[in-house]
Amino acid sequence: MEMKSTAAAAAAEGEGFTGWAGLWSAVASLLFLFSILKEFIPFQLQDYLAALAGRLHALLSPYATVTIDDQSSDYFSGNEAFLAVEAYLSHACARRARKLRADLGKDARALQVSVDDDQEVIDSFRGATLWWYPSKKTNRSNVFSFYPGEDERHFYKLVFHRRHRDLVLDDYLPHVLAEGRAVTVRNRQRRLFTNNPGADWAASEDGRVWSHVKLEHPSTFATLAMDPSRKQEILDDLDMFRDGKDYYAKVGKPWKRGYLLFGPPGTGKSTMIAAMANFLDYDVYDLELTAVKSNTELRRLFIETTGKSIIVIEDIDCSIDLTGKRKKKKKKVKVSDKKKMMMPPWARDEDEEKKVTLSGLLNFIDGLWSAHGGERIIIFTTNHKEKLDPALIRRGRMDMHIEMSYCCFEAFKVLAKNYLGVEEHGLFGEIRRLLGEVEMTPADVAENLMPRSKRKDVDACLVRLVKALHEAKEKAAAAAGNKEDDDSSTSSSEDYDSDEDGKEKQ
Ligand SMILES: Nc1ncnc2c1ncn2[C@@H]1O[C@H](COP(=O)(O)OP(=O)(O)OP(=O)(O)O)[C@@H](O)[C@H]1O
Ligand SMILES: [Mg+2]
Q1: Domain coordinates of the chain in residue numbers?
Q2: Which atom of ligand 1 is nearest the CA belonging to 314?
Q3: What residues form the membrane-spanning segments (predicted)?
Q4: What would the pLDDT profile of 277-287 be if each residue is shown by its tens digit?
Q5: 270 CA → ligand 1 middle, Å
Q6: Which range is least confidently modeled, 141-155, 164-178, 245-259, 438-452?
Q7: How far is the CA of 383 from the centre of ligand 2 (A)?
Q8: By the number of CB atoms within 10 A of the CB, which of 36, 388, 390, 501 ranks highest?
Q9: How many Å apart are CA 41 and CA 44, to the nearest integer?
Q10: Is the CB–ligand 1 distance for residue 502 below 6 Å?
Q11: Assigned fold of 191-403
Q12: ipTM above 0.85, yes or no
């Protein structure tokens, strides 16, 4: 932002400057004359005269300006202030402007209305009147460009009376930024990011490390089947986190939170992540660790995540060997030496031993914790909590451990309501008893409850579930009988082993 005095405001409003009227009309005439003669004045002289006029205005004008530009010196924050002002104006004042621009902006959910260039927008804040002027400036350059518009700089000029300087700088601008950011978050289409393999970063045109699609998972906490008191605990925790900026600052903790979701396959871990993202209105970064070649790549991926996001590593025990070696081998991507030289350092796989290690992952999480850039949540899921290194899941890294378990009766009731629209039924008693005796995942219960035709036959669905529960019970009893026989004959044959993927035979 750049601040200076201007005469532009004088033309905008006559707030207490009647005495200056004559002087301003003289300045306005001069400006008019200058715009006519501009064509005939050499460039160098034009710049000099413009600077002189600027200084004259600064000296005489009772108004000050702040310019907010669409280019920022800070690489990572980009033009955040500019975008926040744009969002604020489109939300708070655009309807008062006479010329509007409507656009389906990048990642927006609906048509966005914004103020057109050179349109004055008047805002008021605690009794002060403020004028906004969206505008653009074309850089004069001798270089011919194939891309017209790339030399264009857009900016917003805020004009206010000098006596409101403190109010504007201390209160109004922070208010605009906060409101603008909130509007952007409300309007944006949430995204699901997945990491591109490192070898592709340099090869792709824009060097993107993450690709994204719209996040449109329908899961919510209302449709998530689990123990209601545990669900409420998680909701309270998320609520506390979302609104806890001041609290986290007060206790000196970074505004981040880690959740470990563990439990057998089909118990709703991935469903829970989608419900969390929908509840918080956050983006999701689905980090596929097996596609990451080195700790350096991992760091780069982390740097390119944004605030208000959930970073997810699914099946963490299958993605990384906790002794430091990785389990799953990605198909080797052959890169020629010449191509390698053209790659940025993080994308080169010069040292085969430089793999993602446990310590790299711990650094990743701790880096996440100490970095700026807004609130972030990290979630690990696993089917085997006991296989994880305690360092990885200690409190402070994974703050809350959430067990997703087999379907209990309360969880069944949520599914029955979602899938069949029933809250009571004669078979509920038997189902309650069977669910207490046999372990069935919510995924299996849901599958049995799913109507097989458009004519929703509630009785048939519930009878099918009861039958499936009886079958599961018999199977479990038979398996237990077999195990007893095995134990008595060969006590040494402990073959409860795990496959390459780490998923144990159940
Ligand atoms: N608790 C649940 N509430 C509602 N639906 C569920 C629940 N658990 C499972 N489901 C249903 O089962 C399907 C599979 O569940 P999900 O993918 O969330 O399981 P998971 O625990 O992530 O399994 P995995 O460990 O194999 O990744 C979901 O699409 C959903 O329809
Ligand atoms: Mg899953």
Answers
A1: 2-17+62-187, 191-403, 409-484
A2: 27
A3: 20-37
A4: 999 989 999 99
A5: 6
A6: 141-155
A7: 9
A8: 388
A9: 8
A10: no
A11: Rossmann fold (3.40.50)
A12: yes
